[in-house]
Each structure stands twice: as C-alpha cells, then as structure tokens.
Amino acid sequence: MKHCIVIGGGIIGLCSAYYLHKEGHKVTVIDKSDFSSGASHVNAGIITPSHIISLAAPGMINKGIKWMLSSTSPFSIKPRLEYDFLQWTWLFKKSATPKKVASSIPVIKNINLFSRDLYEELKQASNDFDFHYQHKGLMMYYKTDKMGEEEWNIGKLAIKEGLKVEHLTKEEIQKLEPNVDLNIKGAVYYHSDAHMTPNEFMLKMKSYLEDNGVTFLANEEVIDFQISEGKIKSINTKNNTITADEFVLTTGSWTQKLAKKLGITIPVQAGKGYRINVKRETGIHIPAILTEAKVAVTPMNGFTRFGGTMEIAGINSQINTKRVNTIANAAESYYNGLQINQQERKDIESGLRPCSPDGLPYIGRLSKIKNVTVAAGHAMMGWSLGPATGKLVSEIISHKKTSTDLTPFHVERFS
C-alpha cells in the first residue's frame, strides 16, 4: 500500500482517488478550492464516444482567429504575447493535420467507450453510491444542408469505427422527442453516448470517498515541491508540508504552471465554457448538440442544462454576458416555444477546460521524477474520460498492465 496525494479535486482527481482506494492505497485529495466549483461541476455531463474528431482539427486556428473579434462566436482565441500561449498555438497548428486527426480517431473512441463502460459499472455497484445516469444517445441537430452534410460525413467515419449512427429526418426525430417543437432540418443520431448530472455525481463520489477513509484537504494550493534523488519527497502548500509516496497531478488548466516547478513542459491552455440551468420542464429528453451554434443541451436530474463556447483566453473567471446570451438565444431558436428568462441567464457559471495542443489528454508517469503521474489536458472530454483516466492512474501506480495503450497520451510528447 502506498500513500498517494491527488492534487486536484475535479472529476479526474476524484476518479483517480476512487480507483486508487479500490486498489488498497491510502489516498489524500487536495485542492486549492473547496471542491464545489470548476469545470467538473458546470459541464454538459455527456459521455461522448461520438466525439471522435479532436479539438485540434484542420481549420480550427483559422476559425479562432476569424472569430476572435466577435463577442458571440462559439470558439475564440484571444492572442497574448506570452511564451506559453504562443508555444501552445504553434503546437496546435502543427497537430491540426488530416493525418494526425485520422490517427487519433480510434484512440479517442476507444478510451471514451472504456470510460462509458466504467461509468456503467459504477452505476451497477449501487453498494458504493447511486447517481443519475442515462444512455439515450446524442442528437447532432442541424438547420442547414451544409452543416447536415458535414455532420453526416463525421457520422460515416464513426460507423466505420463500429459506432451505431443514424441520419434522421425532422419527422423521425419528432417521434423520438414528441414533447418539443424543433426548428431543424434533421440530425445525426449517435446511439453510443450517455449523460449524467455532474454536480450530483461529484457530491456523491466525494461523500463516498470520505466515508471510506479518503482524506480531503480544501483550500490547499500547492506552492512548491521538495525533490530529492529523482522523487518528490513532499509538497508545500500555503498552510502545510505534506509527505507521501506517490503524487498525481490532476490539476486541469493549472497543470502547465505546476509542471514547470518540476522542470517539465506540459502545454495546456484554459478553454472557458458557460452553462445555463433551466429548472422548469422543457420537454427535452435526449441530449443534443445544436451544431451551427456549438451549444450542448442535456436533460439532467430535475433541470435542463444549456452549455457552450470554447474561449481560449488564459486563466480567468470573467463572465462574458454576450456569450451567455448567445447560448440562450441559440437554444430558443432550435426549440420553438422555449424561453430562457433573464434570471436564468444571470444565474450562470463558467468553467475552464484544460486543452492540450493535439486534443489528447496527458496520462502517464514523468521520466525524471519517478513518483509523479500526470492526468490532465482532457479539454471537452474531461467528464467523459473521468473513470477511464482514474482507472489508468491506479494501474500505473499499482504497477499493473494498463487497460489501454498509453503511448498516444505520453506526458512528455511536447518536451
């Protein structure tokens, strides 16, 4: 048994703690906040085998630049004269090639399916904790023939990868979603996806771990590491010095900053997204992406969540009300009769998704510091990949053969 410190209390951190605990390790989770906020609490809650195309797709940089002056665009990159940002942008551009995107498709699909299976195992293990989980698939709604063609081309790639995908007419969709009036032309329907209520899961997972001996230390920001003989001996927080055998960095958008203290380059940029909760009956029962607007719609436990935007603008928590209104207005334009009122538009939250330059997460050990495992950079797939990543972290630390090949997720691939 080892004493493992998990730095970071989001979905990746809690899942790592869960599987490490299951392996018999002593686990302490520390976070610079109080475990009640961040991207893991405000995301769309969708498990996404459908999302086989990485964020680093050809043309995305050009789109980001084209949209950067628009306060309502779904994706924007705010230029900054900072080395980390310029390096990440260059690496993103190098990664955004058809060949690299094609090679990442099976990698992304397989780890998503693995993670979905683990969520379903967790759901069935009701002696641990129960949570909202439904496997209803994901609709990619479109309004224009051009977008429909683009989405169906991706759908056909997914079919080749073994996923069940259908191209539906509006009439076929209305039979599946009879309680909403949709202003669309059609949809590409992925049967592979599932959805959850993130804040509920996070609360129940944390309670389960606490009840089973996992220690949580809130408001403990890591300031530095004490390294000796190729290992971390202890970490310094604002309040304490903490020793352990193993250290896991599940620090999301802050990973690059902490990695620098270890002498390692792990490029990560924060991608801000927003969520609006509508705590009234909307009639929506199947999760959807409103493709032209890049807005996600998820029927959660007791409310419907509308989320969107990818704003690469550094680590900040500023709320851009124009982007929030764009999400709400898009939702109203796809669902006839839906109204998102001013109070719902004001009661919003944002989260920072950690984006790697090639759209793949970092999962694995550091080469020079032997007792550090990194699990970060999941971008929009953080929620989807929580259990898979946590399981892999536990296998690494327990010296077991990993459930999937870690080569594509090599932590130092940009060093």
Radius of gyration: 21 Å
Distance between the termini: 32 Å
What is the tally of beta strands? 23
Strand content: 25-35%
Please explain how this structure is put together.
The mean pLDDT is about 95. Helix 1 packs across helix 12 and helix 5 packs across helix 12 (about 385-395). Helices cover about 35% and strands about 25% of the residues. It has helices at about 10-20, 40, 60-65, 85-95, 100-125, 145-160, 170-175, 200-210, 255-260, 320-335, 340-345, 385-395; strands at about 5, 25-30, 45, 75, 135, 140, 165-170, 180, 185-190, 195, 215, 220-230, 230-235, 240-245, 245-250, 270-280, 290, 295-300, 305-310, 335, 350-355, 360-365, 370-375. The two termini are about 30 Å apart. It is of the alpha/beta class and about 425 residues long. The strands form 5 sheets. Strands 4, 6, 7, 9, 16, 17, 18, 19 and 21 form a 9-stranded mixed β-sheet that branches. The radius of gyration is 21 Å and the shape is globular. It has a single domain (about 5-410), classed as FAD/NAD(P)-binding domain (3-Layer(bba) Sandwich).
Give the gist of this structure.
The protein has twelve helices and 23 strands. It has 415 residues and is α/β, with parallel strands linked by helices. The model has no long low-confidence stretch (mean pLDDT 94).
Characteristic terms for this protein:
alpha/beta, FAD/NAD(P)-binding domain, globular, 23 strands, 12 helices, 9-stranded mixed beta sheet, 33% helix, 415 residues
List the helices and strands and how they pair.
Layout lengths: L2 E5 L3 H12 L3 E5 L8 H4 L3 E2 L12 H8 L7 E3 L5 H13 L2 H27 L8 E2 L3 E5 L2 H16 L4 E5 H7 L4 E2 L3 E5 L3 E3 L1 H14 L3 E3 L4 E7 L2 E7 L3 E3 L2 E4 L5 H7 L7 E10 L9 E3 L4 E6 L2 E10 L8 H14 E2 L5 H5 L1 E8 L6 E4 L6 E5 L9 H12 L18
Helix pairs in contact: 1-8, 1-12, 5-12
